[in-house]
Design brief:
This is GST C-terminal domain-containing protein. Pfam families: DUF7962 (PF25907), GST_N_3 (PF13417). InterPro entries: DUF7962, Glutathione-S-Trfase_C-like, Glutathione-S-Trfase_C_sf, Glutathione_S-Trfase_N, Thioredoxin-like_sf. With about 325 residues, the chain is an alpha/beta fold. Among the domains are: about 90-225, Glutathione S-transferase Yfyf (Class Pi), Chain A, domain 2, CATH 1.20.1050; about 260-335, Glutaredoxin (3-Layer(aba) Sandwich), CATH 3.40.30.110. It contains ten helices and ten strands. It has helices spanning about 15-30, 45-50, 70-80, 90-105, 110-115, 125-135, 145-165, 185-200, 215-235, 240-250; strands at about 10, 35, 60, 65-70, 240, 275-280, 290-295, 300-305, 310-315, 320-325. α1 (about 15-30) links the parallel β1 and β2. The longest helix is centred in the middle third of the chain and has 24 residues, at about 145-165.
């Protein structure tokens, strides 16, 4: 449809819990793709080659369209590969799916989970890693601060386990939407819990275990079994070096051509306005600047120049700020 590996190039690193959402989705769908592995900390020269300042992982390119943030990546995969998509079918199911996305990503469940990273992890003895994560999160990553945050974070996560145990999973269903296979709603709901369960020392088993929350832990085990079976059937991704991935992207075409700026958008921005876009929750110091070419209720699209080529960067609206910048000097204008 889009050339080699469907034109999909996924930039990620292997232990990113957010990137796993996308990797799971690709495996469950059996979508062929290429990957460009990245270091877990900055700098990331492969991403810089594309002219992108956005620092979070994962990133996904399809042709010369590049999608920033796993939420928009999953939405676009559903839209661009509609056959046997994993999204919900009814309005009620779509609401559950969306609420899980909001709960884990926007309402703070994963940030709380990240405060349960064990201080015994070797990476926390690496000053390069902790400094990088402090730049990313805007908070201290000292062992003392992690330990201080742990009780409150643990209370929040235990409450989240109870929510699933006593609501949707309480009737013994296999999957959160009562389907016969995992759906996007399961991915949206499970990734934080699965990550914590696999992170040795994160969960005190006297408080959170398969004995305390048997339905949640059974659901996690079922999901991993289904994922293992899907991976065995799915195409093995091609691994590309950064220069090869960049060449593939620069030589491709755009897959989304009907982009427009909503004239009724509250920001009042016009197509072609020079703007900057950046996340407001983490990685806020890393900001992309370009020409506004798309703006809807759900998405903002920038046109940027790199290596003499135009690329289109797509972001979700929620959790991102869009600001006009002055024509000279690149400073934000007052909105």
């Amino acid at each position: 449809m889009y050339g080699p590996n469907n034109g999909v190039v996924l930039y990620h690193y292997s232990f990113s819990p957010v990137a796993r959402r996308v990797l799971w989705y690709l495996s469950l769908r059996g979508i062929d793709y290429a990957e460009c592995k990245q270091p877990p900390v900055l700098p990331r020269p492969d991403v810089a080659t594309l002219g992108i300042k956005y620092r979070r992982i994962p990133l996904m390119a399809i042709g010369r369209d590049i999608y920033c943030d796993s939420r928009i990546i999953l939405r676009k995969l559903e839209a661009l590969f509609p056959d046997s998509a994993l999204s919900a079918s009814t309005g009620e199911q779509k609401a559950v799916e969306k609420l899980f996305e909001i709960w884990t990503m926007e309402a703070g469940l994963f940030p709380r989970a990240s405060q349960l990273i064990p201080t015994s992890m070797p990476l926390l003895n690496d000053p390069h890693f902790t400094k990088d994560r402090e730049d990313y999160s805007g908070r201290s990553w000292s062992k003392e601060q992690i330990e201080a945050n742990r009780p409150e974070a643990l209370a929040s996560i235990r409450s989240a386990f109870k929510v699933l145990e006593t609501t949707l999973l309480a009737d013994g269903r296999d999957w959160v939407l009562k389907t016969d296979h995992p759906t996007l709603a399961d991915i949206e709901a499970i990734w934080t819990f699965d990550w914590l369960n696999g992170l040795k020392g994160a969960l005190p088993r006297e408080l959170i275990s398969d004995k305390k929350y048997p339905k949640v832990f059974a659901w996690i085990a079922r999901f991993n079994d289904a994922l293992k079976a899907s991976k065995a059937k799915a195409p093995k991704p091609a691994t590309l070096k950064g220069d090869v991935a960049a060449e593939r992207i620069f030589n491709a075409s755009f897959v989304e051509k009907d982009l427009a700026v909503d004239p009724a958008d509250p920001l009042g921005l016009k197509r072609g306005t020079e703007v900057e876009v950046f996340p407001v929750d983490s990685g806020t110091h890393h900001r992309d600047q370009g020409r506004l070419i798309g703006l809807t209720e759900d998405e903002v699209v920038l046109g940027i120049q790199a290596q003499g080529k135009e690329l289109h960067l797509h972001y979700p609206r929620t959790g991102f700020r869009v600001r006009a910048v002055a024509a000279t000097g690149g400073t934000p204008s007052k909105l």
